[in-house]
UniProtKB/TrEMBL annotation:
<keyword id="KW-0808">Transferase</keyword>
<keyword id="KW-0963">Cytoplasm</keyword>
<feature type="domain" description="SAM-dependent methyltransferase TRM5/TYW2-type">
    <location>
        <begin position="192"/>
        <end position="475"/>
    </location>
</feature>
<comment type="function">
    <text>S-adenosyl-L-methionine-dependent transferase that acts as a component of the wybutosine biosynthesis pathway. Wybutosine is a hyper modified guanosine with a tricyclic base found at the 3'-position adjacent to the anticodon of eukaryotic phenylalanine tRNA.</text>
</comment>
<dbReference type="GO" id="GO:0008175">
    <property type="term" value="F:tRNA methyltransferase activity"/>
</dbReference>
<keyword id="KW-0949">S-adenosyl-L-methionine</keyword>
<protein>
    <recommendedName>
        <fullName>tRNA wybutosine-synthesizing protein 2</fullName>
    </recommendedName>
</protein>
<dbReference type="GO" id="GO:0031591">
    <property type="term" value="P:wybutosine biosynthetic process"/>
</dbReference>
<keyword id="KW-0819">tRNA processing</keyword>
<dbReference type="GO" id="GO:0005737">
    <property type="term" value="C:cytoplasm"/>
</dbReference>
<dbReference type="InterPro" id="IPR030382">
    <property type="entry name" value="MeTrfase_TRM5/TYW2"/>
</dbReference>
<dbReference type="GO" id="GO:0030488">
    <property type="term" value="P:tRNA methylation"/>
</dbReference>
<dbReference type="GO" id="GO:0102522">
    <property type="term" value="F:tRNA 4-demethylwyosine alpha-amino-alpha-carboxypropyltransferase activity"/>
</dbReference>
<dbReference type="GO" id="GO:0008757">
    <property type="term" value="F:S-adenosylmethionine-dependent methyltransferase activity"/>
</dbReference>
<dbReference type="InterPro" id="IPR026274">
    <property type="entry name" value="tRNA_wybutosine_synth_prot_2"/>
</dbReference>
<dbReference type="InterPro" id="IPR029063">
    <property type="entry name" value="SAM-dependent_MTases_sf"/>
</dbReference>
<comment type="pathway">
    <text>tRNA modification; wybutosine-tRNA(Phe) biosynthesis.</text>
</comment>
Length: 477
């Protein structure tokens, strides 16, 4: 064995009281600590009581030059305003603070900031805990007759392949699948065979470690590996979800995950529908009356409603009617499960979901107005356009809805929330936003458009941000 391999083997074989991070002794509590999408006591806001959700929003600093991180951290620590950990989003280093926007501007003039709250997603999970647990398990469950040197080499190889990033989506423990670290790598499966370790028993044991990990104490029964969604797939379906272990006899069609974020339940079938934890921040923004004013008692259209990511936040804010359009029947089924779990609007008096192309929305809203409103116009205060990589298909649809069905006299302002993946350069030089506004004006020239906010939601790929641009639309008349 080379020195490098030996050094690595001695590191991964460190005894339980060895270096922190490899011991794994405190595994359950550490894992439990990762599983929290919201602070204890965050209440469901479904009934539309929005006042108690208003809270001070802290900001995080977006630092483009890594050399500035230390200085910023020191300054924050001196004021007791630093929040661990510092993390990276593409080229940007993100430092969380206990400061509000004004405090940050005073301390770090000109530095870009964005809001965050404790119920916003934690940074990517990277931990050696899974590795430590797994190595302990392999050592205690491998065949007695495996040669010591072979065992050490194989354990080192396994340690390098075990995925360390995962999501707890009860009942599914979903692992990432990077080029280096994955349970589906040949080295991993061959390594288990060499040691005589049963993968089924190993996954069952791994799940056992997560039993107490779900904050809502939901059962964990499935280990799966996710692969990236294909860019070209409009329905954003997880075609490459591999189920490695199932502790029940249900079929894929009966597998429903549940997760509560910002006090609202969501439900989805992970073999049929994508789920992005990172959108939790945008969902929280929809719940913030300062960011999304006048939702209450007005109407909202969600042109790509999916499983209800944003739909539920609008309903929680007390909108009058929510019209959602979604092509994927599995997402619609998930949306209704989540809707039921959230326990309000049981008669579906406010929630109108159409399992069809949003191109049909102009016609559907017309029918709704005739049937349920005596032909009266709607007050469409917000239109959500939540499709990646681009929601461009929905831009003319959104403007047609305003043209045909919106009462400008009763509601003089309508806001489009345009989700897109945008390159950093186009964002920073303003060309994306300018192009968006110009294209909207080309579609409907009689109105005015003002891009009032650009929310950087998460990095989609290096140098590419998933953003939501809020565009205020006013009729010139
Ligand atoms: C990024 S996902 C939506 C995320 C969503 N907000 C949620 O809760 O899942 C985009 C969704 O748009 C749907 N979709 C794509 N094109 C559509 C169209 N023309 N009309 C209606 N839905 C569409 C896809 O099926 C997918 O579920």
């Amino acid at each position: 064995m080379t020195d490098t391999v030996l050094a690595h083997v001695s590191r991964v074989l460190a005894p339980p009281d060895g270096p922190a991070g490899l011991s794994g002794e405190n595994l359950p509590s550490r894992i439990a600590a990762y599983e929290s999408d919201e602070p204890a006591g965050a209440a469901g806001q479904w009934a539309g009581q929005e006042s108690n959700r208003t809270r001070m929003m802290h900001v995080e600093l977006l630092i483009s030059d890594a050399r500035d991180v230390k200085r910023v951290k020191n300054a924050l620590e001196a004021r007791g305003a630093f929040v661990k950990p510092v993390y990276a989003e593409g080229p940007v280093k993100v430092v969380r603070t206990q400061l509000d926007a004004a405090g940050a501007a005073a301390l770090f003039p000109g530095m870009p900031v964005r809001e965050w709250s404790a119920d916003v997603e934690r940074p990517a999970r990277r931990t050696q805990d899974i590795v430590a647990f797994s190595l302990r398990y392999f050592r205690t469950h491998m065949r007695d007759d495996v040669d010591g040197t072979v065992a050490a080499t194989v354990l080192a190889a396994l340690a390098a392949r075990i995925p360390t990033k995962y999501s707890v989506y009860p009942p599914v423990l979903l692992f990432n699948n990077s080029a280096e670290r994955s349970f589906t790598r040949g080295e991993f499966t061959r390594g288990l065979e060499t040691l005589g370790v049963s993968s089924t028993e190993y996954y069952r044991a791994l799940l056992g470690e997560f039993l107490g990990a779900s904050r809502d104490r939901l059962p964990m029964r499935v280990v799966a590996v996710n692969r990236p969604i294909e860019e070209a797939d409009t329905l954003r379906q997880p075609h490459h979800l591999d189920i490695l272990y199932r502790g029940d006899s249900g079929s894929d069609d009966e597998l429903w995950c549940e997760l509560r974020q910002n006090g609202l339940w969501q439900s989805w079938n992970p073999t049929r529908t994508m789920f992005s934890r990172g959108n939790v921040k945008e969902k929280a923004r929809v719940l913030d009356p300062r960011a999304f004013p006048d939702v209450r008692a007005n109407d909202v259209v969600d042109l790509y409603c999916g499983i209800g990511y944003f739909t539920f936040s609008y309903l929680a804010r007390g909108c009058r009617h929510l019209f959602g359009f979604e092509l994927n029947p599995w997402s619609v089924a998930g949306l209704w499960r989540g809707h039921e779990r959230n326990g309000a609007d049981p008669e579906h008096a406010r929630t109108h979901i159409y399992n069809e192309d949003n191109e049909a929305s102009v016609q559907r809203l017309g029918q709704f107005r005739q049937k349920s409103m005596g032909g009266e116009l709607l007050r469409i205060r917000h239109i959500n356009l939540g499709l990646l990589p681009s929601s461009k298909q929905g831009w003319p649809v959104a403007l047609s809805l305003l043209r045909e069905h919106h009462d400008w006299a009763a509601c003089p302002l309508a806001t489009l929330h345009v989700h897109e993946n945008v390159g950093v350069a186009e964002l920073e030089d303003g060309t994306f936003v300018q192009g968006l506004v110009e294209q909207l004006a080309e579609i409907e020239g009689a109105w005015t458009y003002a891009a009032v906010h650009v929310e950087r939601i998460k990095t989609f790929a290096p140098g590419v941000w998933h953003v939501c641009v809020d565009v205020d639309v006013r009729s010139a008349a």
